[in-house]
Amino acid sequence: MKVLLLSAEVDPFAKTGGLADVAAALPRALRDLGHEVAVILPAYRRALAAGPEIRDTGAIVRAPIARRSVEGRILASALPPGDVPVYLIDRPSYFDRRGLYGEDGQDYPDNCERFVFFQRAALEAIRVLGLSPDVIHCNDWQTGLVPVYLEEVYRRQPGSPFRAVGTVMTIHNLAYQGAFWHLDLPLTGLDWSLFNPARLEAHGLLNFLKAGLVYADVLSTVSPTYAREIQTPEGGRGLDGLLRARRGRLHGIVNGIDPTAWNPAIDPHLAARYTVRTWPAGKQANKAQLQAEAGLDPRPELPLLAAIGRLDVQKGWDLIIEGAEALLSRNLQLVVLGTGDPRFERALDRLAAAHPGQLRAFLEFSQPRAHRIEAGADLFLMPSLYEPCGLNQLYSLAYGTVPLVRATGGLADTVVDATPEALRDGSATGFSFVEPSAEALIAAVDRALALWRCRDSWARLVDSGMRADWTWHRSARAYVELYDEAQRLRSSRSAG
């Protein structure tokens, strides 16, 4: 099967979050399964700086923006190690900027125009390059108009090569919808008759994500639980009615992890590498290294807790900070890594100053340090308010660091709570709690500390987590089933 993946972010070219990881790892896994895959993203300034061996194809695309024809170049590269082609849509006036979507906490005011251009140019690039995909896989709001353009423009053209091309629209985070002023509609070139609640309009705004959810053949999101949550008024962000109406075409597939990037047996960032058979000695060595790096007291007998991520309410940092004094009154250590809300950064600084040798806050993001923390910690905290999928809990399982999560979204799908029954049957892989409160977090930590003192039980918990298969090949097979479904649906429609 020929799959074309469109994404506003692809690692290592451009990344602000987990979308970039998915858009890099899924194509590699699909290629390993024997499928032909290509990727298209914008040629941001940072993408041109970070991407490997980018070259000019010499091909030009012209995309209609309102009543203008806007020209762009097609650049080419590849995903490391080099066998998945990547095409970048280059238009410096749109993409040669410091940020991807904005700067200094403010979105760029022309984001609607920028991503209209990207989507139209990507479709033109498919034609110019002769890619002939069977399925186009769209990701998040920045690609939401692609299924609309296919249906309302391209498939209506005589001899269109897009007639039988299926579409899959993946929601990575429903909070980000690409909602713009309704008077931006002329930029899209689409007819005003489509600006209605059954098509492109949501709450008076032009909504890119909604457009994709209405027009795509198949919908997906990044975990089964999140797929259910977004169909409720509480989790649907105003689109729950549409998602319920399309629930027969909505699927939840948990993201995977790349075993070439997150594998303690080959990780170059670790003090000692280890496997599921050698983890006790390996984690002991990495814990000692992490305690030294973080300036913590060198006490291997204490449980070492960790948290990594963007410092905001969605990730549950308010619960960690509110409960920090109570947690630190226990006999434990804590290392955190992340940047974000200045209030949380200041609070963590104060806590670290008040608890030297017990708490270290790295207010930065460092990928090598994230690897060392995953390897050196005993327990990983992830008390998210909501979490479409989450990746850190999967990294933790792979590294023998027991995850402690709030039971929401992908966290509920990937971490089996250590109840007495789950411990007896060997299915437990971590700890979870439901109520989004500091008290519930602390109670879950207390349960974990009680099991920590039962070394044999803790070892079985670590073993179970490390043996679980959360690699991308598992997820990629599920996506192939969606691609087959999208192609069948589109073929039946085009034949009719």
From TrEMBL:
Assigned EC number: 2.4.1.21
Binding site residues for ADP-alpha-D-glucose: K15
Catalysed reaction, written as an equation: [(1->4)-alpha-D-glucosyl](n) + ADP-alpha-D-glucose = [(1->4)-alpha-D-glucosyl](n+1) + ADP + H(+)
Which GO molecular function entries does the Swiss-Prot or TrEMBL record give?
alpha-1,4-glucan glucosyltransferase (ADP-glucose donor) activity; alpha-1,4-glucan glucosyltransferase (UDP-glucose donor) activity
Listed InterPro entries:
Glyco_trans_1, GS/SS, Starch_synth_cat_dom
UniProt cross-references to Gene3D superfamilies, sorted A to Z: Glycogen Phosphorylase B (3.40.50.2000)
Establish whether keyword Transferase is in the entry: yes
Task: Give the UniProt family note.
Answer: Belongs to the glycosyltransferase 1 family. Bacterial/plant glycogen synthase subfamily.
Q: Its function?
A: Synthesizes alpha-1,4-glucan chains using ADP-glucose.
Q: Which NCBIfam families would you find in this protein's record? A: glgA (TIGR02095), PRK00654.1-2 (NF001899)
Protein name, entry field: Glycogen synthase
Q: Which organism is it from?
A: Tautonia sociabilis
Upper classification of the source organism reads: Bacteria, Pseudomonadati, Planctomycetota, Planctomycetia, Isosphaerales
